[in-house]
Structures are given as structure tokens and as C-alpha cells.
Design brief:
By secondary structure, the protein is α+β, with helices and mostly antiparallel strands. It has one domain: NADH Oxidase (3-Layer(aba) Sandwich). It is 33% helix and 22% strand. It is built from nine helices and nine strands. A seven-stranded antiparallel sheet has the order 1-6-5-4-7-9-8, with helices on both faces. The protein has a two-stranded antiparallel ribbon with strand order 2-3. A hairpin with an 8-residue loop joins strand 4 and strand 5. Helix 4 runs antiparallel to helix 8 and helix 7 crosses helix 8. The longest helix is centred in the C-terminal third of the chain and has 22 residues. The radius of gyration is 18 Å and the shape is globular. 35% of the residues are buried.
Length: 246
């Protein structure tokens, strides 16, 4: 590791250097808790979280059996199962204000800086393609369902076979200003910690519906950001996970 880069990263993130040097400290307006979406694009309703089935799995079994699964069957997920996984990973339990959400995962300062994108290949009733999860409304919005989108997504991933076989690939993109608002130069450190919270919930939730997950940290940054229409600076992918039935 470049020691100079490491020390600069740590220095930039020191609490004492950020306490009075953040948008929040300067009383600037807090960013929205969800990026704007295209109001002209269709919205796909997901199963209401209040009526999702609660699988009966013991906590110790859940923890002990958590593992990375890299091979999947061709069995598709139901829309209910997809809704369940999304609710467990980024579900909004309540709006604390019009700018702050409380969700099913912890986040530094309750900033919840992630937008969830999905490459859906095997979900009943949904055309394969890229989708965005709009967490506040608990709905999906298609991003790209053109016939060649899966082929174009190949360049985003290092291990293409897992992407090919997965029923769903979760992709978590950080909105940097949302985290920087409270933490300034320390924001990047918290983003990657928060990503771990989200993905662990996916692992545990997937096990309860006989599905497997493999987290993906090795992807091609420029290609995946471009595929999702992200600028790579204010918005960028930090983590992904392939999911399939086992």
C-alpha cells in the first residue's frame, strides 16, 4: 500500500478535522434521502412489507449456516421473495423527517447513502434487465430492459459465470453528498462500513428462503458506473452480490 495515500486518507477522516467543516456544521440544506427518479418511467409495485411471510428459522441456525454460495439453480424467485430481500436490506421503516429515514440496517448518522440497483434475470413476471429499487415507496423502476443489456453488463464483473448464473445481482451505489453532509472527509470510511451491514442482511435473509449469496467486491468500477449512469464521483458503486436459488 502507498503509505502516503494511507496517511492522507486517515488524516482527511480524522474527527477533529471534520467537526466544524461539514455541510451540516455550516447549516447547509440536507440532501434528499433518495435520488430523484424518472416520473415518466413505469413503476412496479412490490409486495407490501406488512404482508410478507416471516420464515421460521432459528437465529443460531441462521448465523451458523451463513456462507458464500457461488453456484445456483435455474429456479426463479417470486416477486414476493424479491420484495422480502429488498425490505430486509434497505427497507424504510419510517420517515423521521422529509430528509431522514430509519431503515432495517444501521447507517452512520442515519444517512443511508445507498441506492440499490438490480440486474434481474430470473424473477417471475419481470423482464430481465436493470432496475432501481425506490426504497421510500418500496417499488421498482426499470432502468434498462433492452435485449442486449445482460451481454453489455458482462464487462462490469470479473467472474462472469456467477453473474450469468445468478437470478438477481444486487448493486449498491453510494451517494457521496448524502454521507458527506454529516461527516465531511470521514464519509468514505463510513460508506464501506455501511455496505457491510447491508450485504450481511442479504446473506441472512436469503438463507431463510433457500437462496444463496456471494458478495462481490471485485468489479470493474468505470464500466459498472457507466452502465448505471453514475458519474463515479458523487455517485459510485461500492459493493455488489449475486443471488440465486440453491
Amino acid at each position: 500500500m502507498d503509505k502516503k495515500f494511507f496517511h492522507e486518507f486517515i488524516e482527511r477522516g480524522l474527527v477533529k478535522n471534520n467537526r466544524d467543516n461539514t455541510p451540516k456544521a455550516r447549516h447547509e440544506e440536507m440532501p434528499l434521502p433518495e435520488k430523484p427518479y424518472n416520473p415518466q418511467a413505469p413503476i412496479i409495485k412490490l409486495t407490501d412489507p406488512d404482508i410478507l411471510e416471516n420464515p421460521d428459522v432459528g437465529f443460531l441456525e441462521l448465523v451458523e449456516c451463513r456462507s458464500s454460495i457461488r453456484s445456483y439453480t435455474n429456479e426463479p424467485f417470486t416477486i414476493n421473495e424479491l420484495s422480502y430481500l429488498l425490505w430486509c436490506t434497505q427497507g424504510v421503516k419510517q420517515m423521521l423527517s422529509d430528509r431522514v429515514t430509519q431503515r432495517n440496517v444501521p447507517s452512520a448518522g442515519s444517512r443511508h447513502a445507498f441506492e440499490t440497483y438490480l440486474f434481474i434475470d430470473k424473477v417471475e413476471g419481470l423482464k430481465p434487465g436493470l432496475y432501481r429499487f425506490l426504497a421510500i415507496g418500496h417499488v421498482l423502476q426499470p432502468v434498462d430492459t433492452s435485449d442486449d443489456v445482460k451481454e453489455r453488463m458482462h464487462s462490469c464483473f470479473n467472474k462472469v459465470k456467477m453473474f450469468e448464473d445468478a437470478a438477481i445481482t444486487f448493486i449498491w451505489a453510494a451517494n457521496m453528498p448524502r454521507m458527506e453532509y454529516t461527516f465531511g472527509g470521514r464519509a468514505l470510511q463510513y460508506l464501506y462500513i455501511d455496505a457491510g451491514h447491508v450485504c450481511q442482511n442479504l446473506y441472512l435473509a436469503a438463507y431463510t428462503i433457500k437462496a444463496g449469496v456471494c458478495a462481490v467486491g471485485h468489479f470493474h468500477d468505470y464500466e459498472i458506473n457507466e452502465a448505471l449512469g453514475l458519474d463515479g464521483e458523487n455517485d459510485f458503486v461500492v459493493y455488489a452480490a449475486h443471488v440465486g436459488k440453491v
